[in-house]
Amino acid sequence: MPCKTTESEEGSLPKDQCESPLINENNEGCAGGGVVLKKGPWTSTEDAMLVDFVKKHGEGNWNAVQKHSGLFRCGKSCRLRWANHLRPNLKKGAFTAEEERLIIELHAKMGNKWARMAAHLPGRTDNEIKNYWNTRIKRRQRAGLPLYPPEVCFQALQESQHDQNTVGVNGGDRGHHDILQTNSYEIPDVIFDSLKANQGVLPYIPELPDIPASSMLLKGLGSPQYCTLQPIMPNQKRLRESNELFPGPSASVGNGFSSFEQFQDDTCDKVAQSFGFSPPLDPDPAIKNSESFGVIQGSHSLSNGNSSASKPTSGAVKLELPSLQYAETDFSNWVASSPRPLLESVDAFIKSPPPAGTFEIDCSSPRNSGLLDALLQESKNLSSSKKHSSDKSSNSSSATPGDIADSSTLNICETEWADYGDPISPFGHSTTSLFSEISPISASGSSMDGQPPAETFTGIIVKSEPVDIAWTSDREEETTPRLSFTQPDALLGGDWLEQSSGCIKDQSIFATFLDDDFDIDYKHMAAGTSTSNQGWGLNSCAWNNMPAVCQMSDLP
DNA sequence: AAACTTCACAACCGCGCTCCA
DNA sequence: CTGGAGCGCGGTTGTGAAGTT
C-alpha cells in the first residue's frame, strides 16, 4: 500500500502506515504520491530540518513535518527523533548513580512505564530508560541477581500499600503508581482454592497457602512487566525444550509430567519471581524437574517482552546462564495469563502424577551455568568464614539436601544473603538457598564438600561466566535490610520469620507484602505458635519440601 | 588478525488512547 | 455513537562498537 504523502493525504495517513507497510526492502518508504519516506538512521541534515521545523511550528502535528519541512520522514519518526535526540535539555551520556537509583525505585513502583519514569528524570527519555533497564535486567538476570534491592522493594511496597489505602485500588492516581493497577495481578482465588483442594492428592505439590492468589502476587512488587500479556509458552514447548536439551531417559519428564512442571513453574517459581528475582541458576533441577526454578530464569524478563521470546533451545546446547530466552517463565505468564494454564496444569498433574524417576532429568539442567563454578568456590570460602554466625547457619552451610529440607533453620539474616549484590550470596554455601546448592548437590548425590567441579557435575560442560555484580556495578550500595529477594525461602521460610526480626524492622511491611492473610500466619509464626507448615503451603512448605524432592534426584 | 559474541543504543513497529468531526 | 486522525507508549529489532576467542 502506497504511502500517502501528498498534502491532501498526509493528514490521513493510516496509522503508522508511513513506516511499516510502506517501506520496501530497501528500508525506504514506498512511493506514495511519488514520495518515498525514509527510514533508518537520521542524518545531521535531517536533524537540522526537523529542528528547524519545530522552531517554526512547535512540537506536535508531526505528520505535518513532511509537508512543511521537506523531510521525508513520517511524523512518527520525526516525533521520536525529536523526543529522543533533538529536543533541548536532553541529557546525554551515562546515567548517574542517582539516576540509576531513581530508575530502580521508579521501576519498582511503576513497572515498565518508561514515559512516566522519564518524567521523573529530567533530560532523560523513556527510550533511554527503557534501554538502560533492559540491558540492566539482562545483566542481572544472567547473574541471577534480583532486580530490585530489598530496600526498594519494601519502599515500593510501602508506597503502594499506602496508595492503595488512600487512593483505592484502581482508582486515582494512575499516573504515579501503576503498581496500583492491581487488576493486573489479580488472580482468582479460586485457582488457589482449587489447588488447595488437591493438596492431599498431589504428592509433590506443596500445600497451598491460604493466601489469596491475588495477594500472593504481590500487590506491590508487581510491575507491569510481570503482567504484560505475553504468550505463554505451551507446556509442550517447554517440555520439548527439556527433551531437546536432555534427550534420552531424562526426557521422561515430558511423559505426563508436564503439568507438574507447569504447576511448579506457575506457582513456586512465580511466587519467587514475583519478588523480583530470577533464580540465578537452575537451582535444583531435581526440585522442579528441569525447570522448577530455572525456567524462570529468563523470566521477567522480562516480560517486558524483553525476553525476546522463548527461543527454543535445540541441538547442541551451549550451557549458559539464564537468559531472557525463557520467556515462558515469565511471571507475567502466571499473572496476566488467564488462570487456565495453571488450573489445567494442576488437573493434568493430578491425573498423571509424576514418576519419581522423572526428577533425574534435572540433574542436567541446561541452566546450570558456569556461574556455579565460581560461586561454589566462593561460597565455600564464604561458608567457612560464616560458620561463626550460628549453629543454624552452620547447619545450612553443610547442608545436604536433607538438611535443607529442614528449612526451619533458614535464616537469611545469618546467612547474609545479606550481601545483596554480592554475587556470592545467592549461592552462598552457608545459605540454605535451594537455588544455590541443590543443583550441584543433587546432581552429584553428595554434599557440598564432596562436590565435583561444577563443570562436570552433570557430565555437561558448563560454561563459566563471571558474575555480574550488577548491583554494585550499578553503583548501588548494598544497604539494609539485607534481605535477599532472590531467595524464596528468604521470604517464605518459616523460621526466617522468627529470626528475621533483626532484618525486617517493620514487619508490617512484610505483612503488607503478602497481604492480610499472610499477616495472620506470619504473626503466628513470629509468635512461635505456628511452626508447622500448615497453612503455609506455598510458602514455607513449598520450599521445605523441595529438598525432599531433591533427594530423589540423588538416585542414580 | 579474523571470526564470533556481547553490549548498548537508535529506530521501528504495533497497539491503544484521546480528541474531534 | 462512530470512525478517523494524531499521538504516546511499550515492546522489538537492527546495527555498530567493543570485547572475546
Quick structural overview:
It contains 27 helices and 1 strand. The protein is mostly helical.
Cα-atom radius of gyration: 25 Å
Number of strands: 1
What fraction of the residues are assigned to beta strands by DSSP?
under 5%
Number of helices: 27
Low-confidence stretches: 1-34, 166-556
Biggest sheet layout: none
Q: Distance N terminus to C terminus? A: 62 Å
- Helix percentage: 40-55%
Mean pLDDT: 44
How are helices and strands ordered from N to C? HHHHHHHHHHHHHHEHHHHHHHHHHHHH
Q: Which structural class fits the helix and strand makeup?
A: mainly alpha
Task: Give a verbal description of the structure.
The protein has 556 residues and is mainly alpha-helical. Among the domains are: 7-86, Arc Repressor Mutant, subunit A (Orthogonal Bundle); 213-271 and 291-356, no CATH class; 371-552, no CATH class. It contains 27 helices and one strand. The protein has helices at residues 7-10, 44-57, 65-69, 75-86, 97-110, 114-119, 126-143, 150-167, 189-197, 213-216, 224-227, 235-245, 258-274, 285-288, 301-306, 331-335, 340-351, 371-386, 391-397, 401-405, 412-415, 434-444, 470-473, 488-492, 494-499, 507-526, 540-552, and one strand at residues 289-290. The longest helix is centred in the last third of the chain and has 20 residues, at 507-526. The radius of gyration is 25 Å and the shape is globular. The termini are far apart. The relative contact order is 0.11. The model is unreliable at 1-34 and 166-556 (pLDDT under 50). The protein binds a DNA duplex (21 and 21 nucleotides) through helix 4, helix 6, helix 7 and helix 15.
